[in-house]
Specification:
This protein is α/β, with parallel strands linked by helices. The chain folds into 2 domains: about 250 residues, Aldolase class I (TIM Barrel, Alpha-Beta Barrel), CATH 3.20.20.70; about 50 residues, no CATH class. About 25% of the residues lie in helices and about 20% in strands. The protein has an 8-stranded mixed beta sheet. A 3-stranded antiparallel beta sheet has the order 11-12-13, with no helix packed on it. It has a two-stranded antiparallel ribbon with strand order 1-2. The longest helix has 15 residues. Helix 2 packs across helix 3 and helix 7 packs across helix 8.
Amino acid sequence: MRCGVCPHECDIPEDGEGLCKARGVRDGKLVELVYGRPATIISDEVEKKPLFHFHPGKRALSLGTLGCNVLCSGCQNWQISHASARGEAKKLSYLSPDHAVSMARKHKLNGVVWTYNDPVVWIDYVTDVSLAFKRAGMFTAMVTAGYMTVEALDQVGPQIDAFRFDLKAPGSRGWSWLTKVEDPAPSLEAAIRAQDEYGCHVEVTSNIVPGMNDDTASIKEMAAWVRDSLGKKTPWHLTRFFPDFELSYLGQTPVATLEEAVRLGKKEGLEFVYLSNIPDHPLRDTVCPACDRTLVHRGSGRAEKVWTRGGKCSFCGEELHMVGDDMGSGDAER
């Protein structure tokens, strides 16, 4: 049977699995082998996803499972993303949509985030749980490379509030070098469609890998795509590469390279470019592009001070493309 969830369109025989190792054919039916079987269940700050303009300071239930359809060569979660569901998924405890909501309420969490592996591989479960969270009045977010068919996005899109998109590289050469994706066009189109068709709040992350996408031309090209396709106020997170898995022979990204990439991104017209995964770095803070005041201070973790109101700067009223900034700490001193 042919799987239509992502553009790989795997032809799967009876008792076989697709490239993602999470979807397969059993008794003549295409099924999610990992439905309701999370491999990771964690309470986490949304800032760690990273989402900086989406419910700052809030915590969410973070869920991931086995398998992935992108299979990044430097994945830091390779123990689960490159794992097969065959024989392993049933060892994981079943978590129903209602139980997931109850768990979030018990621990005073504000929503659910699909992360650690690409959520497209268990999109039916993602859709069902996200619908339960929406009905319960809580937010939903996906951390994804966006490598999915239009039909798959149209299934889950109405239930997703935030779409945190992984922009791997400026072109197909970089994507195919880093992942199992040879043509990134469906991924790029999914991010745009999530925003334009379903009103998802979109933030973009690019892991800056030495010798692959850290040159000036690559940084400028990626920044220009974010600006032209999603808008100049779209947050762009530049993250430091840490050697892992098949790329363990590379070195960490120098901080100076990342700082220069932030400068280049802003020069291309993006108003919010962050250096997201280096604790206590000042480029983790949100600064108003109009009055230049620091509006959100993050330090090493979650948002600590928020001087915004209704998605706007509390000082000058500049629009910040920020959602859910009702943290309660921000009567700004003028």
